[in-house]
């Protein structure tokens, strides 16, 4: 099985990836814009997707722009900003119904791309800035969102863990921006940064669906071409560090369930040799409902509803999270750390290794079958500079041995144990 | 086995009612790598008072029992069923709603074994006192997790304020107190009554051969015996048409207040198709006024009364129906006042032909996009089947909607007495 039939072309100022597939009744377009992660730019980059989605020169208000999309059979447009390792990526996604299922004249795809072109390249401009009303409104909205982060205790605990664990590292910046930088941000500053971004960010365009390469190339030439240099496509190599001593941090909020989040350093990045054992390790440790964390924290000791692990591929981190009663902190913590120790000591079967591999393969195949999922997998490769076919991935996974898993378990270092819990111990 | 072709969307459904009453639907999509199976019982959190199979006396069971039963079905005398799926390289899950409990898997290999695992584990319960006690700790943490989520509290708070006594107002998982009363015998009572094949639907979609799969399921079912089951006698309290309270609020630790308007929908005596048409109209109208292209949304957003957390939903079931709109607001009092006024003025507004055509196009596009997903097809096909509707008829139904019919719907839609408001206020 191939990851997908993929045509990649160097175009004027971007890379175009065409992924023809007859599985879908829609065509999906994904545009990725990438720059180095930094505190300087993150707040502007967090705000931009929201501003750009609101008004363009031909559709100068949110209602007009949304109305135009609705006319195209409710074409979906969304944009967001996220960090991957120490790169920051703006993603624009558009999904349009394939004409052949509709009683419609004219190319919906072309009309949709016209709109996307406007959103990216022709925002509504006024006196060297965005429309002041939109700028102000979106700034307020972002401010409120940053304030409200605390209301979702799981994300808040994640952010606090990162604040402590990656203090002083580029990865420690907040993906949604920082309040102090937002306060001072002017419309003109944002606009001039936008001008810079739209020329200098590294850009990849993905198109999947029942399309021909030729058709997509012709349309792309018309709607995505830009001046400006195109970089290699690789992300910024993230910094890594050896942990000298692990830390334990407890913070208090008004809440009834405690959030226990633990951060580790894997010293392993996407596509490296150890990346395959890392995936198998995660499967045995906490990636699935059959993993050690779920079986021990939840099933055996009834301490939690969820207890799981996941890893970050471009910075080399691994996280455990679990929601527990505030009184069960010590017990839950030691059970979690014991599970890692057990893997280091080889206390798992060949059967668990094989099951973990099967789960990973299944998950990959499933993700690849979703248009946006497939794009994300391919983009991981783009970022790491490591192109690999699905068959090679499966083959590399297949070759992982029990000993490899023991070795990676030893390589993974505990960094920070973070516990966000209720104000009074024992009040639940 | 019956074969039903839906030419307009290029899909074919195979269906058969087994001798024991189990309804099976198959959707063969050989171009997909994945297969998804979902086994659903027409039994959810609202089914609290009923006459158990083989008994004459009606019983009322503890709140949260349908969800508790869903958890416990995965545990067998000697193993956890998650492990069985893991060994077969599949992922499994389950969910409980107001009206349904569903068990599902997704797999890219060992399809027949996975189907067998799904059907057999659901049809072979094993409950013990010990495992029931153990589960109480896990579910308590699940409930506490939701207790800390202000959106969830807002949603259930609104429903609680809408309904006088209908069990839809009860949290699906119950409360930490109510689940303490659940016993092994309660679980068997509910299981035997509601998990009879005649009350269930199996849907398998993906990379399957329909003929062979149907034969496989048929043989599996023919090898099992079930008692004769009369139609289930469920009883619901008599619920007034009006809302229980006109306003209500809770306090919790949130940084931004949340506010909602809830409305009870009139579902009594609607046929399946009437229910569908009403749901479509309600959804299209809410979308027309309150999605990002809507004029009411625009006014609320520009006025700083809402942010992008604003959302709405409308749910139409046989026994109940409701619509909820709301989200974060810095000025909840002003927001609720304005929103309620909008709901009333909406009745007097007129919608032009062009706008009506656009509303339909948007709905069609949304539906086509959703058809990319096997999960959507299987889940929604089952949902609509239980309401006496065919999912693939939804498209022609949307096409057949008339403006005059919508106007008649609006006329009868929004009544002050059926509305409530609900706030989540920051703790002082």
General description of the model:
The complex is a heterodimer of chains A (428) and B (428). Chain A is an alpha+beta fold. Chain A has 2 domains: 7-224, Metalloenzyme, LuxS/M16 peptidase-like (Cytochrome Bc1 Complex, Chain A, domain 1), CATH 3.30.830; 247-421, Metalloenzyme, LuxS/M16 peptidase-like (Cytochrome Bc1 Complex, Chain A, domain 1). Chain A has 15 helices and 13 strands. Chain A has helices at residues 39-52, 62-71, 108-121, 132-148, 153-165, 179-184, 187-200, 213-224, 275-287, 292-300, 329-344, 350-368, 371-384, 390-398, 402-411, and strands spanning 7-11, 14-20, 26-36, 76-84, 87-97, 125-126, 129-130, 202-209, 247-252, 258-265, 304-312, 317-324, 413-421. In chain A, the strands form 3 sheets. Chain A has a 6-stranded mixed sheet with strand order 1-2-8-3-5-4. Chain A has a 5-stranded mixed sheet with strand order 9-13-10-12-11, sandwiched between helices. In chain A, helix 11 (329-344) packs across helix 15. Chain A is globular, with a radius of gyration of 23 Å. In chain A, 49% of the residues are buried. Chain B is of the alpha+beta class and 428 residues long. Chain B folds into 2 domains: 2-222, Cytochrome Bc1 Complex, Chain A, domain 1, CATH 3.30.830; 247-426, Cytochrome Bc1 Complex, Chain A, domain 1 (2-Layer Sandwich). Chain B contains 14 helices and 14 strands. Chain B has helices spanning 65-73, 81-87, 111-122, 129-147, 150-162, 184-194, 210-222, 272-290, 295-302, 332-345, 353-370, 374-386, 394-400, 403-411; strands at residues 2-6, 11-17, 23-28, 35-41, 49-50, 59-60, 91-96, 101-107, 200-206, 247-252, 258-264, 311-316, 321-328, 419-426. Chain B has a 7-stranded mixed sheet with strand order 1-2-3-9-4-8-7, with helices on both faces. In chain B, a hairpin with an 8-residue loop joins strand 5 (49-50) and strand 6 (59-60). In chain B, helix 1 crosses helix 6. The N and C termini of chain B lie far apart (63 Å). Chains A and B meet through helix 2, strand 5, helix 4, helix 10 and strand 11 of A and helix 2, helix 4, helix 9 and helix 11 of B.
């Amino acid at each position: 099985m191939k990851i997908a039939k993929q045509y990649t072309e160097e175009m004027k100022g971007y890379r175009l990836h065409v992924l023809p597939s007859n599985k879908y009744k829609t065509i999906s377009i994904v545009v990725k814009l990438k720059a180095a992660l930094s505190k300087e730019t993150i707040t502007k980059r967090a705000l931009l997707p929201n501003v750009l989605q609101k008004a363009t020169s031909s559709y100068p208000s949110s209602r007009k722009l949304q109305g135009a999309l609705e006319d195209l059979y409710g074409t979906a447009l969304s944009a967001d900003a996220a960090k991957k390792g120490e790169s920051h990526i703006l993603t624009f996604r558009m999904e349009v119904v394939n004409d052949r299922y509709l009683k419609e004249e004219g190319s919906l795809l072309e009309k949709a791309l016209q709109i996307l072109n406007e959103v990216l390249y022709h925002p509504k401009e006024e006196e060297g800035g965005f429309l002041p009303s939109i700028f102000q409104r979106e700034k307020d909205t972002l401010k409120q969102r940053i304030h409200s982060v605390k209301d979702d205790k799981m994300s808040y605990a994640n952010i606090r863990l990162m604040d402590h664990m990656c203090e002083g590292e580029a990865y420690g910046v907040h993906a949604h921006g920082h309040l102090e930088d937002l306060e001072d941000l002017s419309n003109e500053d944002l606009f001039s940064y936008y001008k810079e971004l739209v020329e200098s960010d590294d850009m990849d365009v993905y198109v999947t669906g029942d399309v021909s390469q030729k058709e997509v190339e012709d349309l792309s030439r018309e709607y995505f071409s830009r001046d400006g240099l195109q970089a290699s496509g690789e992300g910024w190599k993230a910094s890594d560090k050896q942990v000298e001593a692990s830390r334990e941090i407890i913070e208090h909020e008004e809440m009834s369930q405690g959030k226990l989040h633990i951060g580790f350093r894997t010293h392993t990045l996407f596509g490296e040799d150890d990346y395959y054992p890392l995936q198998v390790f995660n499967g045995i440790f906490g990636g699935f409902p059959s993993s050690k964390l779920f079986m021990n924290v939840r099933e055996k000791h009834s301490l939690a509803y969820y207890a799981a692990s996941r890893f970050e591929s471009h910075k080399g981190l691994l996280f455990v999270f679990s929601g527990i009663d505030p009184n069960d902190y010590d017990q839950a913590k030691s059970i979690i750390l014991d599970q890692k120790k057990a893997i280091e000591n080889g206390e798992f079967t060949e059967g668990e290794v094989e099951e973990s591999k099967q789960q990973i393969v299944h998950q990959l195949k499933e993700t690849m079958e979703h248009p946006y999922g497939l794009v994300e997998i391919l983009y991981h490769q783009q970022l790491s500079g490591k192109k690999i076919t699905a068959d090679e991935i499966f083959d590399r996974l297949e070759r992982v041995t029990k000993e490899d898993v023991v070795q990676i378990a030893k390589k993974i270092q505990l960094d920070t144990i973070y516990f966000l819990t209720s104000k009074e111990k024992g009040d639940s | 086995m019956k074969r039903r072709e839906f030419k307009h969307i290029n899909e074919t459904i195979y269906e058969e009612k087994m001798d024991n009453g189990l309804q099976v639907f198959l959707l063969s999509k050989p171009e997909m790598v994945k297969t998804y199976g979902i086994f659903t019982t027409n039994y959810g959190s609202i089914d609290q008072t009923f006459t158990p199979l083989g008994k004459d006396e009606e019983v009322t069971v503890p709140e949260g029992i349908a969800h508790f039963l869903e958890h416990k079905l995965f545990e067998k005398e000697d193993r956890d069923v998650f492990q069985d799926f893991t060994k077969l390289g599949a992922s499994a899950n389950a969910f409980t709603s107001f009206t349904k409990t569903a068990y599902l898997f997704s797999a890219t290999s060992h399809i027949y074994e996975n189907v067998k695992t799904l059907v057999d584990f659901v049809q072979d319960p094993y409950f013990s006192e010990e495992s029931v006690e153990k589960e109480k700790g896990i579910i308590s943490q699940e409930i506490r997790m939701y207790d800390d989520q202000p959106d969830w509290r807002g949603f259930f708070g609104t429903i609680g304020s809408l309904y006088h006594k209908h069990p839809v107002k009860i949290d699906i998982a119950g409360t930490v107190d109510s689940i303490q009363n659940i016993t092994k015998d309660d679980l068997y009572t509910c299981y035997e009554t509601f998990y009879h094949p005649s009350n269930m639907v199996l849907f398998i979609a993906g990379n399957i051969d329909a003929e062979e799969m149907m034969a496989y399921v048929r043989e599996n079912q023919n090898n099992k015996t079930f008692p004769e089951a009369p139609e289930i006698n469920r009883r619901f309290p008599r619920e007034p048409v009006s809302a229980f309270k006109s306003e209500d609020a809770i306090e919790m630790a949130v940084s931004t207040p949340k506010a909602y308007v809830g409305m009870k929908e009139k579902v009594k005596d609607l046929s399946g198709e009437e229910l569908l048409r009403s749901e479509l109209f309600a959804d299209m109208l809410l979308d027309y006024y309150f999605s990002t292209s809507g004029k009411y949304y625009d006014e609320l957003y520009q006025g700083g009364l809402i942010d992008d957390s604003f959302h709405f939903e409308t749910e139409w079931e046989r026994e109940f129906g409701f619509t909820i709109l709301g989200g974060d607001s810095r000025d909840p009092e002003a927001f609720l006042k304005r929103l309620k006024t909008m709901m009333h003025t909406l009745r007097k507004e007129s919608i032009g032909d062009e706008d009506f055509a656009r509303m339909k196009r948007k709905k069609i596009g949304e539906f086509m996009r959703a058809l990319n997903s096997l999960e959507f097809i299987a889940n929604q096909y089952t949902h609509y089947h239980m309401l006496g509707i065919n999912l693939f008829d939804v498209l022609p139904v949307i096409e057949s909607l008339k403006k005059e019919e919508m106007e008649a719907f609006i006329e009868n839609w929004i009544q002050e007495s059926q509305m409530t408001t609900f706030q989540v206020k920051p703790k002082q």
